[in-house]
C-alpha cells in the first residue's frame, strides 16, 4: 500500500514531520491512485491574484490591519534588529509569560508544564491541531461559511471535514448541530467572531458546546478577531479550567503584525504536547519583541477597536443608504450581498483599483470586505457605486 506514495511524496511527508512509520497509514488514508494533497494550494492561488498590485491599490481583501504595528511596537522592533544575528529564545518565553499572566494561565519554561505555546502566527497551531487530533475516523467539524484553513489540513491527512451551516437567524455557530455532527469528531472548530461573517456566537452556546462536545474531541476556539469585538468575550478561562479546549490568538489582526508573524495556542500542557512535533525552530525575534510590547501597551486594544468600529459604522451607513444588504459584524470585516456571482463583483472592483473578496461557496453572491482606513473605505464607496448593480 505504501507504494502509492512515490519518492517525492515521501520526501514531502518527511519534510512535514511525518515519520517513515506513518507512511503505511497515510497511504491507506489516501487510497490507491489518489494524489497527495497539498493543503496550501488554494491559499497560494489566492495569493497569486494579489501579486504586482499598483502601489496605490486599496487592499481590503485579507482582514489585515492597515495601521501596522503600533508606534511603540515598531520602535521596539527597530531596536532589536541589531541583535538579529542571535536566536534569543528568551524573547519567545518573555512573550509567552506576558500572555500567560494576562490570561490567568500558568507559564513555564518547561514545555510539558506550560499552558501557552508561541508560534509564528496562528495558522501554524491551527494546522497542527488538526493534524494531531483528526484522522480518517476523527473528522474536522467547521461552520459554513467558515475559515477554511483547518479543512485543508484535514484534507492533507485524509480526515473528513463536516461543514455545519451557520444559524440562519443570527449567523452564529449552530453548536448543537456541530456537537451532533459526529460522535468521533477529532476537532470542532469555532471561530469567534467568525471569519468571513464577523458574527459572534453567544457565550451560552460556546459554554454549552464545551460542556456537551463528544468525548475525546478538542474544541478549537479561534479568537483571531476577538480584540475587535464588543459583543463577545475572550474565553481563555476554559483553558485555565483544564477543559479540552485549545484557544488560538494572533497578532496579525488588531495588533497589525500579519507580516511579522506572531501567534499563540493556549491549552492544557498535555493537549499542546502532540502539536509540538509538527515543526521546529526559533521564532522571528522582531515579532516576539513587537508582540510582547503590544500586549503591554495600555489602551491599545480600546484605541484600535474604536478606530475600526468608527470606520465600519460609516461604511455600514453608506451601505444602508444605498440599500445594499450586509451582515452586521463585530470584527474588521463584513459580508455584503452583491446580488450576482461574487467573483464578478470583485473583478469589477479590482478594475477600480479596490481589492475586495473573497467569496464562499455557501454564499456565492456575498463578498467579504475588510475594514480599512477612512481613506481606503471612501475609495471603496466610490468604486462600489460604480460596480454594484441593484
Ligand atoms: C480566523 C482566522 N484564524 C487564523 C488566521 C491566521 O492568521 P495568522 O496565521 O496570520 O495568525 C486567520 C487569517 O486571516 C483567520 O482569519
Walk me through what this model shows.
- By secondary structure, this protein is α/β, with parallel strands linked by helices.
- It is 40% helix and 12% strand.
- It has 15 helices and eleven strands.
- The chain is globular and about 55 Å long.
- The mean pLDDT is 92.
- The site of pyridoxal-5'-phosphate has 14 residues, from α6.
Output the keywords.
11 strands, 3 domains, alpha/beta, 12% strand, 15 helices, two-stranded parallel ribbon, 390 residues, Aspartate Aminotransferase, domain 2, 7-stranded mixed beta sheet
Bound molecules: pyridoxal-5'-phosphate
The arrangement of helices and strands along the chain is HHHEHHEHEHEHEHEHEEHHHEHEEH
Q: Termini separation (Å)?
A: 56 Å
Give the low-pLDDT segments. Answer: none
CATH topology of the largest domain: Aspartate Aminotransferase, domain 2
CATH classification, class level of the largest domain: Alpha Beta
| Major beta-sheet overview | 7 strands, mixed
What form results from the Cα inertia axes? Answer: globular
Strand order of the largest sheet: 2-8-7-6-5-3-4
Indicate the mean pLDDT. Answer: 92
CATH homology superfamily name of the largest domain: Type I PLP-dependent aspartate aminotransferase-like (Major domain)
Number of strands: 11
Count of the separate structural domains: 3
Tell me what the CATH architecture of the largest domain is: 3-Layer(aba) Sandwich
Radius of gyration: 21 Å
Strand content: 5-15%
Derived from helix and strand composition plus strand pairing, the structural class reads: alpha/beta
Amino acid at each position: 500500500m505504501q507504494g502509492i506514495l512515490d519518492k517525492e511524496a515521501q520526501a514531502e511527508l518527511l519534510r512535514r514531520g511525518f515519520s517513515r512509520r506513518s507512511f503505511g497509514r497515510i497511504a491507506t488514508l489516501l487510497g490507491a491512485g489518489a494524489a497527495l494533497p497539498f493543503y496550501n494550494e488554494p491559499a497560494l492561488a489566492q495569493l497569486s491574484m494579489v501579486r504586482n498590485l499598483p502601489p496605490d491599490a486599496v487592499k481590503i481583501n485579507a482582514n489585515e490591519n492597515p495601521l501596522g504595528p503600533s508606534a511603540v511596537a515598531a520602535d521596539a522592533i527597530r531596536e532589536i534588529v541589531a541583535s538579529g544575528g542571535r536566536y534569543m529564545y528568551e524573547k519567545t518565553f518573555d512573550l509567552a509569560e506576558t500572555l500567560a499572566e494576562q490570561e490567568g494561565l500558568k507559564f513555564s519554561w518547561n514545555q510539558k508544564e506550560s499552558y501557552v505555546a508561541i508560534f509564528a502566527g496562528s495558522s501554524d497551531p491551527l494546522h497542527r491541531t488538526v493534524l494531531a487530533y483528526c484522522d480518517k475516523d476523527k473528522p474536522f467539524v467547521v461552520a459554513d461559511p467558515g475559515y477554511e484553513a483547518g479543512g485543508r489540513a484535514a484534507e492533507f491527512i485524509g480526515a473528513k471535514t463536516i461543514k455545519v451551516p451557520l444559524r440562519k437567524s443570527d449567523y452564529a455557530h449552530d453548536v448543537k448541530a456541530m456537537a451532533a455532527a459526529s460522535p468521533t469528531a477529532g476537532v470542532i472548530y469555532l471561530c469567534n467572531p467568525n471569519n468571513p461573517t464577523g458574527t459572534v456566537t453567544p457565550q451560552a452556546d460556546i459554554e454549552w458546546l464545551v460542556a456537551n462536545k463528544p468525548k475525546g474531541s478538542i474544541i478549537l476556539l479561534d479568537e483571531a478577531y476577538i480584540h475587535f469585538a464588543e459583543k463577545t468575550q475572550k474565553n481563555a478561562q476554559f483553558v485555565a479550567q483544564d477543559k479540552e479546549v485549545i484557544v488560538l490568538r494572533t497578532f496579525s489582526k488588531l495588533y497589525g503584525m500579519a507580516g511579522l508573524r506572531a501567534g499563540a495556542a493556549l491549552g492544557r500542557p498535555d493537549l499542546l504536547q502532540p502539536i509540538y512535533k509538527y515543526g521546529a525552530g526559533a521564532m522571528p525575534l522582531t515579532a516576539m519583541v513587537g508582540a510582547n510590547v503590544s500586549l503591554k501597551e495600555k489602551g491599545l486594544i480600546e484605541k484600535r477597536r474604536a478606530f475600526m468600529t468608527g470606520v465600519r459604522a460609516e461604511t455600514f451607513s453608506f451601505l444602508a443608504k444605498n440599500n445594499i444588504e450586509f451582515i452586521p459584524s463585530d470584527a474588521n470585516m463584513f459580508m455584503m450581498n452583491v446580488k450576482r456571482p461574487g467573483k464578478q463583483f470583485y473583478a469589477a472592483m479590482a478594475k477600480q483599483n479596490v481589492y475586495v473578496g473573497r467569496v464562499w461557496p455557501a454564499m456565492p453572491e456575498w463578498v467579504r470586505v475588510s475594514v480599512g482606513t477612512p481613506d481606503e473605505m471612501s475609495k471603496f464607496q466610490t468604486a462600489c457605486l460604480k460596480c454594484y448593480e441593484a
